[in-house]
Amino acid sequence: MIGKVAVLGRRIIENVDRVIVGKSAVTELILVALLCEGHVLIEDVPGVGKTTLARAVARSIGGQFRRIQFTPDLLPSDISGISYYNQKLGEFQFRPGPVFANILLADEINRATPRTQSALLEAMEERTVTVEGDTMPLPRPFLVLATENPVELEGTFPLPKAQLDRFLLRIAIGYPVEDEEAEMLLRFQRANPLDALEPVASPEDLLAAAAACREVHVDDDLRRYVTDITRATRAHEAVALGVSPRGTLALFRAAQALAALRGREYVLPDDVKEVSHAVLVHRLILSPEARLRGRDARQIVDEVLAAVRVPVEQV
């Protein structure tokens, strides 16, 4: 089954590459989140293709896509849906909100008020929505792709750590290199390639692949390696608050999913290292002294990875 996961992953990545040029690694990380049934925070400048990437992934897996533009006047009911009185039927009916989708793009999530941001918490963690006492399940797979613009911070509401911790990964797309940008112009010269993009998988394929990822073998020493990394962040002198146990589990699951996408039935230390920055950086709170010295969380993760002993195979 692991071989099928790798084939499925390559098919989706190649399909998305028809629209997004040169960002296969980013697509692979989004697939890691899908296979872990986690969520992704994309923090990048405007115009690098965040919305297009989300649409391309949704079309590639044959899933339902919805987009919410977060603004200060957005209400929780605008996300979850409302109950309204149907005069023709003489009864109350529920009108589902955009959260009832396979992939939800929460665009500029930090522009909404904390009350509205928190409306996503139950959906992200429990995969359910409760309206007027009724709890309804969300479709599966369910992935929240939230975006933040790190440039314009005026009028924004920074995400609290409790909500940041619910994102499996935080990633950036980045600018294309020169050749990739030229290729982008060629592809979009006559039409948007997204319009002709066809599904190459189904939501059921993703659910089966996600179940297979849980069977990827993780050696006892490698499991200890994962816990040593996250525990080292809590003991680091520059960190006020280290990675939570939820972050430990996220690192473990993400390494399993990456190994499956690479066609392996076992996890290597390199898998853990490769996903460490995307999983751990946004979960660290640095001490005031460290911030004054200009240190950042990526440097701390690098130091932790360099200090923790890597397990080696016994001959």
UniProtKB/TrEMBL annotation:
Any keyword ATP-binding? Answer: yes
- Family the UniProt entry places it in: Belongs to the MoxR family.
Query: SMART domains, alphabetically?
Result: AAA
Tell me a Gene Ontology molecular-function term this record carries.
ATP hydrolysis activity
Domain AAA+ ATPase, chain residue ranges per copy: 36-177
Native organism: Sphaerobacter thermophilus (strain ATCC 49802 / DSM 20745 / KCCM 41009 / NCIMB 13125 / S 6022)
Q: Which InterPro entries match?
A: AAA+_ATPase, ATPase_AAA-3, CbbQ/NirQ/NorQ/GpvN, ChlI/MoxR_AAA_lid, P-loop_NTPase
Entry keywords, A to Z: ATP-binding, Nucleotide-binding
Extent of the signal sequence: none
Report the PANTHER family cross-referenced here: METHANOL DEHYDROGENASE REGULATOR, MOXR FAMILY PROTEIN
> Which Gene3D superfamilies would you find in this protein's record?
Magnesium chelatase subunit I, C-Terminal domain, P-loop containing nucleotide triphosphate hydrolases
Q: What is this protein called?
A: ATPase associated with various cellular activities AAA_3
